[in-house]
Design a protein that fits this description.
This protein is elongated. The protein folds into three domains: 87 residues, no CATH class; 38 residues; 108 residues, no CATH class. It is mainly α and 267 residues long. Helix 4 runs antiparallel to helix 5, helix 4 packs parallel to helix 6 and helix 5 runs antiparallel to helix 6.
């Protein structure tokens, strides 16, 4: 309890004081993103990893029942389970909690049986070398060098499109996809984005309207943000991009690559 109180007090050492928690409350109580944003949706159990997480969670709760119950592991596991099964983005939290409960339960039972739970130093050294070799192998396979990371970013985000907007000195306002808002804030600081991941700032109604517009559902032409846009950066395979190719307000793309397409409003 003392550690929890100290951690809570440490969070107040910020420029906003207690108002920081108002933003946390806004995110936690805003229902829309948990229905529309993929990473915030619950596990759908369509992937093997989802079932693996369920099995690990069950094993952790089973192990918890075989040890002397204390507040910390119980609250940690229950809280992590709630957050992870509410939003798939927080599965990492539950993974760490399960590993902690399983590892400490084994150690606790070994102590009760008068067995030393610690490994000899030679075994620890071998495990450490094996983990280091695994990390180096993964880094090589996934090409985690600076140039490799830049290539990966260019395959996911509109790097070339942002460069084209900057070099062409195209004037906003900018209309962009929800998933690219954070990147474009960094890549084009002189072009305020239309929407980004700050869902509490934009609100459920506006987020839903953007989703309908990008799907080119009925009423997309009357979207007020699209109507006011001077530049549109769209995923090349999106429904809206296909519609804008035939929209007299924009005409032919000013730039197109394998990831994104740029439309500039005609003067």
């Amino acid at each position: 309890m003392g550690l929890a109180a100290a951690c809570a007090a440490a969070t107040l050492a910020n420029p906003y004081g207690v108002r920081l928690y108002l933003v946390v409350l806004e995110y936690a109580t805003q229902p829309g993103p948990f229905r529309w944003v993929n990473e915030l949706r619950a596990l759908e159990f369509r992937e093997p990893t989802d079932w693996l997480m369920l099995a690990m969670t069950g094993a952790a709760f089973f192990a918890l029942g075989r040890r002397k119950l204390t507040a910390f592991p119980v609250l940690l596991l229950v809280g992590a389970t709630f957050f992870a099964f509410r939003a798939r983005r927080d599965v990492w939290f539950l993974t760490l909690a399960c590993l902690y409960v399983l590892a400490t339960t084994r150690s606790e039972r070994a102590e009760q049986d008068d067995r030393s739970p610690s490994l000899p130093w030679s075994a620890r050294a071998k495990i450490g070398l094996a983990l280091l070799a695994l990390a180096l192998l993964l880094g090589w396979v996934r090409d985690l060098s600076p140039s490799g990371l830049e290539r990966h970013v260019a395959n996911v985000f509109p790097v070339e499109a942002a460069n084209a907007v900057r070099d062409g000195d195209f004037q906003g306002p900018l209309y962009n996809d929800f998933n690219w808002g954070g990147y474009l804030i960094w890549a084009l600081p002189d072009h305020p984005v239309a929407i980004d991941g700050r869902t509490n700032l934009h609100g459920d109604e506006r987020i839903e309207r953007f989703g309908r517009t990008w799907c080119a559902l009925p009423g997309w032409r009357d979207d007020e943000d699209l109507s006011a846009a001077g530049v549109v950066i769209a995923p090349v395979d999106s429904a809206l991009a296909e519609q804008l190719r035939h929209d007299a307000r924009f005409g032919d793309p000013a730039h197109e690559d394998r990831v994104a397409v740029v439309f500039v409003r005609r003067k």
